[in-house]
Write a structure and sequence with these properties.
With 178 residues, this protein is an alpha+beta fold. It is 37% helix and 13% strand.
C-alpha cells in the first residue's frame, strides 16, 4: 500500500526533474495527494484526481499523473489543470493559480465515460441523458463521479454524500445545477 508521503515524494521528484514545483497550498496539496493515492489503490496507477478515470490503463494513459497536459498547462498558465504542479512565479505568489481549460480531447473524455462512439458532442450528451447515471461533483473538493448515486463519502476529501451535487447540461456542456 502506498503512503501519502510516497505520493508526495514522487510528485516532488518529478517536479524537480522538470524545473517546476508542487503547489504551496497545503490544503489543496493534501486533497490532491489523497486523490492520487486513492486512484492508485483503486486502478493500480495514479490517475489525475481532477479528471474522471475509466479504470482502463490504455484509455487513461494520458491522465496518469503527471498527465500529458501538465507541461503545456504549466508553460502557458503557470500551473497544471489541477494545480498540483506550478511554475516558480506561481509558487512564490507572483501569479495566482487560475482555471485551466481542459486539453484532454473530447473523444478520450467520452471513452472514459464508457459511452458508445457518437458522431457529435450533442449525440454523446443525449446518450448520457438517457442513462440513469448522473455526473456528480463534491462541493467541498471538486471530485467528479459518473454514477447512479453519490458515494457515501468522497474518496478525496471524505465529505459526506450530502456534499455531492448533480451537474446538468446547458448548451451541450455540464454546468453546476443551480
Amino acid at each position: 500500500m502506498i503512503s501519502i508521503d510516497d505520493v508526495k515524494r514522487r510528485a516532488q521528484q518529478d517536479a524537480k526533474s522538470r524545473g517546476i514545483r508542487i503547489t504551496p497550498d497545503e490544503k489543496l496539496l493534501q486533497c490532491l495527494l489523497e486523490g492520487l493515492k486513492t486512484n492508485e489503490e483503486r486502478y493500480g496507477y495514479p490517475s489525475c484526481p481532477c479528471r474522471m478515470a475509466s479504470g482502463n490503463f490504455e484509455t487513461d494513459r494520458d491522465i496518469i499523473c503527471p498527465c500529458d497536459y501538465r507541461d503545456p498547462d504549466v508553460a502557458e498558465y503557470g500551473c497544471c489543470y489541477c494545480s498540483l504542479y506550478v511554475d516558480d512565479e506561481t509558487h512564490e505568489g507572483k501569479n495566482q493559480a487560475r482555471a485551466i481549460p481542459e486539453r484532454r480531447p473530447y473523444d478520450k473524455q467520452r471513452a472514459t465515460l464508457g459511452l458508445a462512439e457518437k458522431e457529435t458532442e450533442e449525440e454523446t450528451i443525449g446518450e448520457m441523458m438517457k442513462s440513469s447515471r448522473k455526473l456528480l461533483y463534491c462541493k467541498q473538493c471538486g471530485y467528479v463521479v459518473f454514477s447512479d448515486d453519490p458515494p457515501y463519502v468522497c474518496p478525496i476529501c471524505k465529505a459526506k454524500r450530502e456534499m455531492f451535487e448533480e451537474l446538468v447540461t446547458a448548451l451541450g456542456h455540464y454546468t453546476r445545477k443551480v
